[in-house]
Amino acid sequence: MNNLKRIDLNLLVTLQALMTEKHISRTAMRLHKSQPAISHALAHLRDIFDDPLLVRRGGGLELTSRASELMQPLSDALDQLGALLEPPEFDPSQAQRVFRVSMSDYGARIVLPRLVRMLRATAPGIELVVSQATREAMRMQVMDGEVDLALGVFPPPSTELHTETLFVETFACLADAASMPASRMLDLEAWLARPHALVAMRAGTDNEIDRALAQLRAERRIAVILPHWGVANELIVDTDLVLTVARRNLDAVRADTRLCVFDPPFPVESFEFQQMWHQRRQGDPAHSWLRQVIARVVRDR
């Protein structure tokens, strides 16, 4: 144990090279070091092992009996240390792993269908546990390790958190087609005069639409608040309600002739849809693979 405290990995690597090359200058070239540095390392190794290790013979060096005994154990030890220091390989087709992912209802609609199909096809041993939370709660879940990954819209992260922007999203409005004028548009006055539906996990949630209206010193009247998107489009049919949501939410209803999709009559900032994870997951090959799969699923959509 005392000798172990005196040695470092570089010395063991040098010893292996010396025993292979049996020559100071060739060892120096192999390790990109100077000959004096190799000679100094050999002297240190001789002191640690209390053995000459290599002795001069002709124009080179010859292993002592002790060095010959060390060759295979040293090679095995360095291989094991290399495997320890290298990140483990991840084979999705063979992996058995549970991933906990938090996302909004919107994120689930955009990501989950294609993600689940891809996981079933390429990584059938992966179990995906999906939860729903507000933006603030998702951030805390990632910080606390409650979830492995969160998908949503987040403020600039702290140094412990990482984010990747998956796409930039804009907003669109949805209304009953029969309630719309011939132009299939509403100006701001008409838009504000209509009652509105809001998809939010709780009342009073800060959102991009109301922040944009506040810039205009305007306020909409919310008539219905829904926690999920599920029935939102059906509630619009045969009513005077207007629903303003992320544009990708409306892709599936554009062919519904009962409904009209149109742009908001005022400027609304776009937003970045991101995936967020903690620094503790940064070096995890399986986690990195999942992030890459999600990015590919979303961008190929």
From TrEMBL:
<dbReference type="Pfam" id="PF00126">
    <property type="entry name" value="HTH_1"/>
</dbReference>
<comment type="similarity">
    <text>Belongs to the LysR transcriptional regulatory family.</text>
</comment>
<dbReference type="InterPro" id="IPR000847">
    <property type="entry name" value="LysR_HTH_N"/>
</dbReference>
<dbReference type="InterPro" id="IPR036390">
    <property type="entry name" value="WH_DNA-bd_sf"/>
</dbReference>
<keyword id="KW-0238">DNA-binding</keyword>
<dbReference type="InterPro" id="IPR036388">
    <property type="entry name" value="WH-like_DNA-bd_sf"/>
</dbReference>
<dbReference type="GO" id="GO:0003677">
    <property type="term" value="F:DNA binding"/>
</dbReference>
<dbReference type="InterPro" id="IPR050389">
    <property type="entry name" value="LysR-type_TF"/>
</dbReference>
<dbReference type="Pfam" id="PF03466">
    <property type="entry name" value="LysR_substrate"/>
</dbReference>
<dbReference type="GO" id="GO:0003700">
    <property type="term" value="F:DNA-binding transcription factor activity"/>
</dbReference>
<feature type="domain" description="HTH lysR-type">
    <location>
        <begin position="7"/>
        <end position="64"/>
    </location>
</feature>
<keyword id="KW-0805">Transcription regulation</keyword>
<keyword id="KW-0804">Transcription</keyword>
<dbReference type="InterPro" id="IPR005119">
    <property type="entry name" value="LysR_subst-bd"/>
</dbReference>
<protein>
    <submittedName>
        <fullName>Bacterial regulatory helix-turn-helix, lysR family protein</fullName>
    </submittedName>
</protein>
